[in-house]
């Protein structure tokens, strides 16, 4: 039985089953006709139910407005209800299109007929669900049982980028929207740009077509050196109405460039369709960046910055999945020449030193050769390190070039790069991305962090986190904590958040509790703006133009992206906006929570990450063990130690970091010399240079404290770290949980307020209900208020799975 059918339609369906039984009268065609009529009746009854509830909610909204109760949240429920009832009707009238959409995603393909048939009623059922929820909550407020804080709306015209946050009407604000909205819809179309879906201008959302798309791309410049005026109008005629971003889309390269430069595509990557070391490609892009940067200088559509690249990577190892997309199948003569020059600098012109390391016999640096893709059997050897480090340095050089070109004509332009979270989800370091260097380079933090709300839908992909947690919180948390440690004073933009779906996961009946908890967690940990993946409905309900007809994209993932996405999920799409409303209502509190010091710092070395297996995988285990102790976690690198105030943390923990450069070693020693505390898991930590050669120097305590544990026991390392957290770094309010499991699942943050109270944020990321107890170290009794509802609470209470609480706690007089 379809689990989404309500009792109101079970009776007609029972008649349908009886009519189609072997003993029933009538021909097969008569039975089919009867079935069709009953299905239409069932659908119309669901819509009728929804419209009755919609009318009731609107009447309640009118009553609330008469009492000066804010109904912004209900306005969004009404809007999504009306939209998805319309969408359900379109889906019902176009079953072939919906069946095709499910068919493009291999996870759904075998069941596409059933899914397409059930989708319209599923959507209607979910509309009823959000209406019921809206009626329930507004009813509580009308009866005086709860009191919600009015929504702090985003000013889509006048929001400004401040030093480390966006500001709207004098308060912090977290803009939200969907990356890749319906192409061609003007900003004036309120069915696409509004408070419900977000109203950020998308400058370059036409993602995958290689040629003339609505983005700043290689085709802007013609062979004669002039600009294609038709394409340039896509930039010059942007309405300067809403805040937005512009994207430099580098996937394609014109044919005339290939005719002039035969190597231009050698060493290309998935989303960069040319060799970044090619001088002609650089010349073209320099001209494009300068022209577009000058034309868009100071416009609102750049308030969220210029995105320098979409998910850049240059994986150069054998058997990597990107090879079939022709990524780094070889390197150009330009890349090789730059590598040779890099090696000459690295080895101070001593070719003998390189030959000793590589076990080769090159006569000079300009004779050096390397096979790309490189064999993973070489990992841990000097040749692997040198290539991997160079690959990172050359990509950082490319983005430095892009930013410098932009700033030469538009010095105040904000920039960021859509860095993939896989750098902190997986262990490979052959992709050419130095997350720290790129985060330091750009004026804003940029990425497309993701999470998994249910198991990975791809065969042979791990969902091990499901053994302990309701969703993959770690992919969000560890990545954000690293980015914020590197650049604590920069705005953090997720320009393609894959919290709702991705190529590796989706769930048609996703939990709204998951949606709320993952967006809340990401914002708590630093996310200032997000553009979710993705909105692909035209206002009439049809999939947008790119998803109609026969889909043949370079990236096969896009064709299947529509199925099981938020475009079919009224409950999910509504909850995204609802949680962003609540976050913006409490934006000042969220900022206070996220600006806490990070007393424990985990040492991170790209040098070790390049050289060993499972650097992130095993490092995550220590991170996970410390994350639930109520203290914000941070990272320490050479640059962080050298550039930031060392007094902002209490201890640096070094775990599985044997390989470090001399500069990294010296930074840790300098920290100790100034009185810092360092915990080593082993005396082998920091003992090798980048080439695996034993370091003659050893760390000494200096004026600080050096603890060498000689253990790989995560719990022992954790306890040692906690013992060296200063008492002044510990909150006076203690959060205790009991969940019946051998591991904690409550993410807690506590911030003392000027009036003596405490701001407390709790998120339960576990599968089970947890019993929570709040207490003060001095033993005084407590008063607890749920800030979302203004309801008093006991100091001990239950938290269900994925529950989010924001509390005000104070000592009772």
UniProtKB/TrEMBL annotation:
Domain of life of the organism encoding this protein: Bacteria
Keywords assigned by UniProt, alphabetized: Coiled coil
Gene3D superfamilies: 3.40.50.880, Glycosidases
Entry-linked CDD domains: A4_beta-galactosidase_middle_domain
Segments crossing the lipid bilayer: none
Residues in coiled coil: 47-74
Methyltransferase recorded as keyword: no
Keyword Cytoplasm applies: no
PANTHER family tied to this protein: BETA-GALACTOSIDASE GANA, BETA-GALACTOSIDASE YESZ
Protein known as: Alpha-amylase family protein
Organism (species): Catenovulum sediminis
């Amino acid at each position: 039985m379809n689990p989404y059918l309500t009792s109101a339609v079970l009776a007609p369906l029972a008649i349908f089953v009886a009519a189609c039984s072997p003993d029933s009268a009538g021909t097969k065609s008569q039975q089919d006709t009867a079935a069709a009529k009953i299905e239409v009746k069932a659908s119309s009854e669901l819509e009728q139910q929804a419209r009755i509830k919609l009318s009731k909610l609107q009447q309640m909204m009118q009553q609330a407005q008469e009492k000066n109760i804010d109904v912004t949240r209900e306005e969004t429920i009404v809007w999504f209800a009306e939209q998805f009832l319309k969408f359900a009707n379109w889906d019902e009238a176009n079953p072939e299109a919906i069946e095709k959409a499910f068919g493009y995603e291999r996870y759904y393909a075998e069941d596409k007929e059933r899914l397409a048939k059930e989708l319209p009623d599923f959507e209607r059922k979910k509309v009823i669900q959000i209406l019921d929820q809206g009626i329930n909550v507004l009813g509580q407020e009308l009866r005086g049982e709860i009191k919600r804080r009015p929504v702090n709306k985003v000013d889509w015209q006048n929001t400004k980028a401040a030093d480390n946050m966006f500001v709207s009407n004098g308060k912090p604000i977290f803009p939200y929207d969907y990356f890749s909205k319906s192409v061609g819809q003007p900003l004036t179309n309120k069915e696409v740009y509004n408070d419900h879906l977000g109203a950020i201008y998308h400058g370059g959302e036409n993602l995958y077509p290689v040629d003339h798309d609505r983005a700043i791309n290689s085709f802007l410049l013609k062979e004669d050196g002039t600009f294609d005026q038709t394409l340039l109008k896509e930039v010059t005629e942007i309405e300067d109405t809403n805040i937005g971003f512009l994207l430099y889309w580098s996937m394609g390269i014109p044919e005339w460039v290939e005719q002039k430069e035969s190597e231009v595509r050698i060493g290309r990557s998935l989303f960069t369709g040319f060799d970044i070391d090619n001088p002609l490609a650089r010349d073209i892009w320099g001209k494009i960046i300068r022209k577009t940067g000058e034309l868009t200088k100071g416009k609102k559509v750049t308030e969220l910055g210029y995105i320098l690249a979409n998910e850049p990577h240059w994986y150069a190892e054998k058997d990597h999945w990107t090879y079939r997309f022709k990524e780094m199948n070889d390197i150009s003569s330009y890349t090789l020449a730059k590598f040779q020059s890099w090696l000459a600098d690295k080895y101070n012109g001593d070719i003998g030193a390189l030959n000793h390391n590589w076990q080769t016999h090159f006569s000079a640096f300009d004779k050096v050769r390397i096979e790309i893709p490189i064999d993973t059997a070489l990992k841990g050897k000097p040749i692997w390190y040198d290539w991997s480090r160079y690959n990172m340095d050359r990509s950082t050089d490319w983005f430095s070039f892009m930013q410098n070109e932009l700033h030469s004509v538009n010095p105040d332009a904000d920039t960021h790069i859509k860095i993939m979270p896989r750098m902190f989800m997986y262990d490979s370091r052959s992709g050419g991305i130095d997350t720290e260097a790129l985060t330091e380079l750009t004026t804003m933090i940029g990425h497309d962090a993701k999470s998994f709300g249910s198991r990975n839908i791809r065969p042979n992909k791990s969902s091990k986190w499901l053994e302990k947690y309701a969703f993959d919180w770690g992919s969000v948390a560890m990545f954000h904590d690293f980015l914020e440690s590197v650049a604590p004073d920069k705005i953090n933009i997720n320009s393609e958040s894959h919290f709702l779906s991705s190529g590796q996961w989706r769930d048609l009946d996703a939990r709204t509790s998951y949606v709320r908890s993952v967006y809340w967690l990401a914002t708590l940990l630093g996310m200032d703006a997000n553009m979710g993946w993705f909105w692909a409905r035209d206002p009439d309900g049809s999939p947008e133009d790119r998803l109609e007809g026969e889909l043949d994209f370079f990236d096969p993932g896009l064709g299947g992206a529509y199925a099981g996405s938020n475009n079919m999920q009224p409950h999910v799409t509504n909850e995204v906006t609802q949680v962003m409303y609540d976050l913006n209502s409490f934006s000042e509190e969220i900022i206070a929570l996220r600006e806490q010091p990070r007393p424990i710092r985990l040492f991170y070395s790209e040098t070790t990450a390049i050289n060993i297996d499972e650097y992130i995988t095993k490092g995550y285990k220590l991170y996970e063990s410390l994350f639930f102790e109520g203290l914000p976690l941070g990272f320490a690198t050479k640059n962080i130690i050298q550039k930031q105030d060392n007094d902002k943390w209490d201890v640096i923990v070094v775990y599985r970091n044997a390989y470090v450069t001399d500069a990294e070693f010296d930074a840790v020693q300098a920290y100790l010399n100034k009185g810092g505390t360092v915990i080593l898991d082993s005396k082998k930590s920091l003992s090798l240079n980048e080439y695996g050669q034993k370091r003659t120097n050893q760390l000494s305590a200096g004026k600080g404290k050096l603890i060498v544990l000689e253990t790989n026991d995560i719990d022992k390392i954790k306890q040692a770290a906690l013992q060296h957290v200063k008492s002044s770094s510990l909150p006076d309010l203690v959060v205790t949980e009991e969940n019946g499991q051998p591991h904690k699942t409550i993410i807690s943050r506590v911030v003392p307020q000027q009036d003596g109270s405490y701001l407390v944020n709790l998120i339960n990321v576990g599968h089970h209900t947890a019993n929570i107890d709040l207490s003060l170290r001095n033993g005084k009794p407590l008063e607890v208020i749920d800030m979302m509802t203004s309801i008093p609470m006991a100091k001990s209470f239950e938290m269900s799975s994925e529950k989010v609480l924001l509390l005000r706690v104070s000592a009772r007089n």
